[in-house]
Fold this protein.
Amino acid sequence: MTKVLVTGAAGFLGSHVTKELLEKGCHVIAVDNYSTGKEQNLSGLHRHERFTHLVYDVSDPSVIGLEELRGVEQIFHLASPASPKFYQAAPMETIAVNTIGTRHMLEVAKRNQAKLLFSSTSEAYGDPEVHPQSEAYRGNVNTWGPRACYDEAKRLGEVFCYEYHHRFQVEAKVVRIFNTYSAGLRNDDGRVISNFVTQAINGDDITVYGDGSQTRSFCYVDDNVRALQLVMEKDEATGEIINIGNPAEYAILEVAQMVKRLAESDSVITYMPLPQDDPKVRRPVIDKAKRLLGWEPHIDLEEGLRRTIQSYRNRLVAN
């Protein structure tokens, strides 16, 4: 039985990974300090005999010596606020979990000769001047702005992974995750899909920032989780940075119109000023993921939005 540590296990992505690992027969050590994760994301798992839950901050150095982490074979380091709404409200904590917390997890990996996957971000590319973005692109980033606490902390987390891999032979793997969504994304998350769907089904104005011409690429969470599992399993991914995302690119206004249509909503699309340092374009090159993992996404945006809209509606009825 494989013993796996998942940090940020109560978060959007972490909870999906945790459930998939339990289904595969793993023993999962789930760590979360509930800064942005929600306990309900792990509801029903506490009675599972292969599930251990620790309320802990991985930025605390005592995490390295926890008895429960002894013998872990795989580490999915997913802990971090990911929405601008949350990381801009907690910048110091965001910096800490992605830098100090990452080093702590690498120390745990080193002590246990475990594999470690670090969830970095497409935000490492900043507001890109090269389009689409491959892993070789070094980015166009701003260290002096409201997004820097997330972008730059993730970039330094990657550096820690590089050093531990080259100095100590830790089997570190880095994934740069592009926009991910699904029915499980909290409706107060503040990211574009959750905002649009919540506004559309409530009949509120659908808020587009800027003129809506900026683009994003959206990957449904099932495709993302499948990719993360492949990264962990494949030796070819060790010591690599790999883009994980859907290369289909959409203008934000186009997404707003699609959500309005699929939700059969009477909402009006309105416009607000574009936030500082908001990237104008974003689309991953996934050739490396195809080559090393044999992976590409299967769920297109329209299908993913249908699932998300239905789930949000069901949740409103239940509440």
Observations:
- The chain has two domains: 3-178+219-245+288-293, 192-214+249-283+300-318.
- Residues 3-178+219-245+288-293 form a domain with the Rossmann fold fold (CATH 3.40.50.720).
